[in-house]
Amino acid sequence: MALLEVKGLKTHFFTREGVVRAVDGVTFSVDAGQAIGIVGESGSGKSVTALSIMGLIPRPPARIVDGSVEFQGRDLTTLSDRQLEDVRGREIAMIFQDPMTSLNPTLKIKTQITEVLDRHFGYSKDEAGRRAVELLEEVRIPNASERLEDYPHRFSGGMRQRVMIAIALACNPKLLIADEPTTALDVTVQAEILDLLEELRRDHEMGLILITHDMGVVAEVADEVAVMYAGQIVEHAPTLELFDHPEHPYTEALLGALPQLEGEDVREGRLLSIPGRPPDLIAPPPGCRFAPRCPYAHLGDGCADNEPELRRIRQNHLVRSRHPASERQREAAPV
Amino acid sequence: MSTTDPRDAVVAEPAVPEVVAGAGAHAGAPMARASLWRDAWRRYLQNKGAVIAGAIFLLIVLFCLIWPIISPHDANKVDLTQARQGPSLEHPLGTDAFGRDMLTRVALAGRISLAIGLGATVAILVFGVIYGSTAGFFGGRLDNIQMRLLDALYGLPYLPFAIILLAIIGTINMWTMILALSIASWFTAARIVRGQIITLKQNDYVRAAQALGARWYRILSRHLLPNTLGVLIIAMFLELPGVILGEAFLGFIGLGISPPDASLGSMAEEGRSEYRANPHIMFVPGLAIAILVLCANFIADGMRDALDPRTRETKEG
């Protein structure tokens, strides 16, 4: 049984302008020890998906209108706030994008780590203190026992993210959700943090959901990748498979938009981008949500009218498009 | 959290030699060693007016506390043969209409005025924090109701409101004065706290705490309220002059502490009837009030520079 199973999750924001369908039918699962990357551009619903799993979406205006989030057989969407609080931090932990603001500036690092231990395990001060040193050592902060007494402003961005990871790991959670954990960091620090996450995941047999818009980060860490567009998963495949054989036109375009170090475009000083902008989620396009920007929408088949289903195109490879790459090739070169 | 970390003081201080700090790393060097409070203290010291005002304020407080104990005169002893004397060696500030030593009496009155001022300020902050933080933290309809109520209360004029409250309470002593003055003026503090809490609520570390399973009271007490402390301290010194003045005013119109005790306001009132012949009887407590209020204002100004990051940036630019 999967550790986490998200089924048909729909999180909508009820605003004055209308209902924003930020997450609109997302289904995926995470096994113990598995890392899933969720990729997409800003506003594609990645973060809202994560917050919905944690039950941290701002209510109002947001509400989970449909679907379930089953964690170890329990549907988190049906739990009360109090029950959810016991799951958060204890079973599922989360780290956020900006380590500079994710730590309380008025509390010592020690207090912030021991707080979780006290909250979930009722550790005594001494026990919690010892565990805090272990945790800081585990995330490779030198002079751990001394640094515990410091306030956050004495730590660099990378170090703070390590502290955040230490806090997240404090209760040995079974699932870690990392919401753009490296976006705010330098490239070199980014690599270190990713290595650390990778190692900790292996050591702790922890499930990992990595949310990012950086294809490079996903390639490094994730076993499987789900590409999100306009609140839906448009392609879901093992990482290598996705990079080698992208099927959805959006994924192709995303990979095509990665800056290249060599090739024609570099010589001409061009960066490729996807024309148009993501759709308005209050009134999404009636058919395929990517149709207005899709280079293959002219092929017809009701792209503009009917929403395509997420279908299995190969083993482990799901795609939500009428014109996935492999089928286009077959049509272009008829036998 | 304001306790100074001894390890910090011993280890970190020599770690940043003065030469480095002087060598031009104005922005970088202090950051590395200073805690928030030490940083604030350093910035406070840069404001000369605030430092002088703070020193005078402290001296006045000490004088009020100590002088009545060591003074050769009994502040309440009536001696009509000594009445209405001007300043002399025996009585540096002269005597009042009953022959009581003005210097001792002013110290005693200062005690009461300061006690009322500080007491009411603390009460204002307590009311303000409780009311403002519930409104800001829970938001929504509760916030709306609380704030509209506050808007209505805001319309009441400060001193008449305090006078009516005193009339309702019935008795006048130090505690009822504190109560009346604080009830009449906690609104601004509540608004400040509410605004702060609403801003702080957006912080990532609040969300991070939620993601770790922290309950609401923990988030409020651990992550939100301590962060409002700086603003609260500023608010406290901004409220203080108003309260001292308010108390003095009430004393002056005869609603203050009853004789033989005195506050600065009621002392000034005693001297009012004969201020042409013996101006010092009114002038001395009046001057004391003026100095106290002025000092409190300067201190508040310095505190704001030291603790409020927004004005800080523009000052140090």
Question: What is the structure about, briefly put?
Answer:
The complex is a heterodimer of chains A (335) and B (317). Chain A is α/β, with parallel strands linked by helices and 335 residues long.
Descriptive notes:
Chain A has 12 helices and 12 strands. In chain A, a hairpin with a 2-residue loop joins strand 11 and strand 12. Chain A is of the alpha/beta class. The mean pLDDT of chain A is 83. With 317 residues, chain B is mainly alpha-helical. In chain B, helix 5 (48-70) packs across helix 14. Mean pLDDT of chain B is 79; it is low at 1-33 and 312-317. Chain A binds chain B through residues 54, 56, 85-90, 93-98, 101-107, 115-116, 119-120, 149, 151, 153-154, 164, 167-168, and chain B through 1, 5, 7, 31-32, 35-36, 203-205, 207-215, 218, 222-223, 226-227, 229.
Write the layout of secondary structure elements.
The complex is a heterodimer of chains A (335) and B (317).
Chain A: E1 4-15, E2 18-30, E3 35-39, H1 46-54, E4 62-71, E5 74-75, H2 81-87, E6 92-95, H3 109-121, H4 125-138, H5 144-147, H6 157-169, E7 175-179, H7 187-204, E8 207-212, H8 215-221, E9 224-229, E10 232-238, H9 239-244, H10 249-256, H11 264-267, E11 311-314, E12 317-319, H12 325-332
Parallel strand pairs in A: 3-8, 3-9, 6-7, 7-8
Antiparallel strand pairs in A: 1-2, 1-4, 4-5, 9-10, 10-12, 11-12
Chain B: H1 6-15, H2 18-22, H3 28-33, H4 36-45, H5 48-70, H6 102-138, H7 140-154, H8 158-169, H9 174-183, H10 187-201, H11 204-211, H12 216-252, H13 264-272, H14 280-307, H15 309-316
Helix pairs in contact in B: 4-14, 5-6, 5-14, 6-7, 6-9, 6-10, 6-12, 6-14, 8-9, 10-12, 11-12, 12-13, 12-14, 13-14, 14-15
